[in-house]
Amino acid sequence: MSTKDHDHNAPESGPALRVKALEALLVEKGVVQPAVLDALIDSYEHKIGPRNGARVVARAWVDAAYKKRLLTDAAAAIAELGFPPGPQGEYMMVLENTPRVHNMVVCTLCSCYPWSVLGLPPVWYKSTPYRSRAVSDPRGVLKEFGLELGAEVEVRVWDSSAEMRYMVLPMRPPGTDHLGEQELASIVTRDAMIGTAIVKYPPDKGSSVGAPAR
Amino acid sequence: MNGVHDLGGMDGFGPVVREQDEPVFHSEWERRMFALALSTMASRCFNVDEFRRTIERMPPVRYLSTSYYERWLYAVEALLAEKGVITRDELESEMRGPVERGAQLATARAEPATRMSERVPGQGSRKPRFCIGERVSTKNINPPGHTRIPRYARGKRGIVRYDWGVFVFPDSHAHGLGRNPQHCYGVEFNGRELWGQDHPARERVYLDLWEDYLAPDRRNGVKAKQATTRPAPARTSTAGPRDAGKLRARRGRAR
After folding, report:
1. A132 catalytic residue (yes or no)
2. By the CB < 8 Å criterion, does B196 face chain A?
3. Which candidate from A26, A124, A158 shows the least CB-CB separation from B17?
4. pTM above 0.80, yes or no
5. What is the fold of A49-194?
6. Which domains, ranges and CATH numbers included, belong to chain B?
7. Residue B232 in this model has a pLDDT that exceeds 80
């Protein structure tokens, strides 16, 4: 699905009309409040996104004690940076990629995703091609993302079937010793934290995490 | 339910298509739908397991041909009607234009929409049936209702690597049959156990599975010897199995 499937200026019909009517009805009944809906949308569109996860990764790269806390009690370590657990982030596990182990995350049954650190998932993460093959052909899927792993690397696929949410701690790329924490955060991509990419330096053009800053 | 949503291991959907510079939402109605679903869930109109279960009830062809938030709309509308929060007639008439309803208003529920579900670990007193490092086999079950054990992992052997604590059981919670809290475990499966001996080496799949999905691994009628709790050969993460207990203990204190 791409943006061309959605005509932003079309007169309201189909789901747009239905959702509008549903909201009006629920507001009228006092079940939902428009201000609460507005605040939720604002949070997930402007405040909660992969930049939060990128800051967690950068901190772990520069602070060994923080990294240890992150790998043993992720939700608490993430909260240290001012990101509250929130929905889809209460029970977190961070998976460390190494030269020998590559982790990647999927939800084959629906779309479970670590909202508190990565925001809402991209369409491809929720799509049938990714959900179907990530568990049975992870190396093939990674190739489609431009990532070819050596045969010596073990691939670990985490299928989020319960309430644990997973984020990958990618490897810090070589040649970044001179970068500060903020600069490091700026090269971390969303896909690297899902495990479908690695972090590169200098970064590929257009590979930023793609979320507005807080 | 062996539904179309249970996609793991299927072929034929083509390559993963990514959108450059993808926005968080693709249209205004997706924004509103997202917030409506979270807000009605937070107001306890329905729980997250009922929500997932209802999406899974979509006819397969419709499931595959609708967008993500259209599925949310389908499920929220169906659940609100089933729970008596709205009626289909009210919605249809609202779609034709605003309606004066006056005295029918329900009591306002002003809870902040912060929780996605009432899913919380239980009191933690329940003794786990399985221990970390124990070899287990998944049951070959095909329940007609909601379940969170994917088809590809049924009747397979794995090793318990994590005990995440006690969680509400989706198979009952999705059907109004109670919370049935029980331990949920992170179970490791070898790729070849899931996909056959021709499958590439060095692949593992981890699933989080509730106690009722698992049985002790009793090959030849004897309970299999406990697997080593030593990290698997390639495991270098410091978040090894032995840390899971610590993790759980911390959570316990935090509550």
Report:
1. no
2. no
3. A124
4. yes
5. Nitrile Hydratase; Chain A (3.90.330)
6. 28-103 (1.10.472.20), 135-254 (2.30.30.50)
7. no
Residue intervals in chain A for CATH 3.90.330.10: 49-194
* pLDDT per residue as tens digits for the range A105-120: 999 999 999 999 999 9
Amino acid code (one letter) for B255: R
Mean pLDDT (whole number) for B3-15: 97
Q: Which of B5, B20, B250 sits opposite A73 (nearest CB)?
A: B250
Sequence-distant (≥ 6) Cβ neighbours of residue A150 within 8 angstroms: none
Q: Are A20 and B32 in contact (CB < 8 Å)?
A: yes
| Cross-chain residue pair B206–A73, CB shorter than 8 Å | no
Distance of CA B228 to the CA centre of its chain: 29
Chain position carrying tokens 């090959």: B219
Neighbours of B59 (CB within 10 A): 10
Contact yes or no for B94 and A87 at CB 8 A: no
Inform me whether the pLDDT recorded for A211 exceeds 70.
no
pLDDT category, B246, cuts 50, 70, 90? very low
In the predicted structure, residue B102 carries a pLDDT above the cut 60: no
The yes-or-no verdict on residue A135 having pLDDT over 80 is yes
Distance (Å, whole) CA A164 – CA A112:
9
Query: Who has greater pLDDT, B138 or B246?
Result: B138
Which of A3, A40, A44 to mutate to test binding with chain B, by most B CBs within 10 Å of its CB?
A40
A5 pLDDT tier (thresholds 50, 70, 90): very low
Those residues whose C-beta lies under 8 Å from the C-beta of residue B54, and which sit 6 or more positions away, are: B46, B74, B75, B78, B79
Tokens of A42: 């604002």
A111 annotated active-site: yes
Half-sphere exposure of A73 (CA within 13 A, CB side): 16
List residues bridging with B238 in a β-sheet: none
- Burial degree of B50 (CB within 10 A; 0-12, 13-18, 19+): buried
